[in-house]
Design a protein that fits this description.
Blueprint lengths: L11 H12 L4 H9 L2 H20 L10 H21 L8 H9 L3 H4 L3 H18 L11 H9 L5 E7 L9 E7 L4 E7 L10 E8 L8 E6 L8 E5 L8 E9 L12 E6 L2
Antiparallel strand pairs: 1-2, 1-8, 2-3, 3-6, 4-5, 4-7, 7-8
Helix pairs in contact: 1-2, 1-3, 1-4, 3-5, 3-7, 4-7, 5-7
Length: about 280
């Protein structure tokens, strides 16, 4: 069959909603959120996800058991990691057919089908199928840029936008930093303008999130980033290493390459409180 043109891949927000749609259903607010996303992309992925979910349902006898929360969280985390890798690589291995995975589920031992272990087998098939889509050679070009994802996140209800003030640190002279953070999806972006370029072999910038429900001496690590020379601006995905219950403030520090677990905060370049 001839290709009909470039096909984009779903971003993390769309994957979250599509997975929830076929595993447990969406609230009216979440359904409206999915409706305003790219329907062409969503429909291209929703059909196979629904088929995989149906296969999971018939894997057990009688009433199917609910997917364990820990399993769902693990699958979503791996899908997000795969989406990021696929966006960076552009193309990859060939597509894995969902029909093959459904057949594999159908041939599972009867005893396994009657137990919650069937969830693990079926969910693994779902994961493999989606990884196959993300690595499909039918996907052309890069996914949405960090700046485009930031703009999309800003349109979601309940998103926080925080202005960070530059400090007297020399690297921060003339710098402007703002943060967009979505408490519901635990996703965010920092937009950095005018921060001094760094040598990654010498030091990196590190993002921190101060959680109102945690000890303020130990803010949540939001990931490290670099500022290339002559960059007009840098938009950085915030990758919180722990769940943030209530984001009260954000900061950027200078740390050794790779970042640190606990910052001594000797070199804070920007900090700001959430309203």
């Amino acid at each position: 069959m001839a290709e009909t043109g470039p096909q984009k891949q779903p971003d993390e927000a769309m994957l979250d909603l599509l997975i929830k749609q076929v595993t447990e259903g969406l609230s009216p607010e979440e359904q409206r959120e999915l409706d305003v996303l790219d329907n062409e992309i969503a429909s291209a992925y929703a059909r196979d996800l629904e088929q995989a979910a149906a296969a999971i349902s018939v894997a057990g006898s009688g009433q199917p058991e609910a997917m364990p929360a820990a399993l769902r969280a693990a699958i979503e985390a791996q899908l997000k990691a795969a989406a990021t890798a696929a966006a960076a690589a552009g193309t990859g291995e060939g597509r894995l057919e969902v029909s093959d995975k459904i057949r594999d589920i159908g041939s599972a031992p009867r005893a396994q089908k009657r137990s919650s272990a069937a969830w693990w087998a079926a969910a693994a098939c779902l994961l493999l199928a989606v990884l196959g889509w993300l690595r499909s050679p039918l996907v052309h070009g890069p996914g949405p840029s960090a700046a485009e994802q930031r703009e999309a996140l800003l349109a979601r209800p309940g998103v926080q936008q925080i202005q960070l003030a530059a400090t007297a640190e020399p690297a921060a002279a003339g710098a402007k930093v703002d943060v967009v953070w979505d408490p519901r999806s635990q996703r965010g972006f920092a937009r950095v303008v005018g921060l001094q370029a760094n040598d990654p072999s010498q030091h990196q910038y590190q993002l921190w999130i101060f959680d109102g429900e945690r000890d303020q001496r130990y803010p949540v690590d939001g990931g490290v980033f670099n500022v290339p020379a002559n960059a007009a601006q840098v938009v950085v995905p915030i990758r919180a290493q722990l769940v943030v219950h209530a984001a009260k403030a954000f900061a950027v520090t200078i740390e050794p390459p790779g970042g640190v677990v606990v910052s001594g905060r000797e070199h804070v370049v920007a900090i700001g409180k959430a309203s």
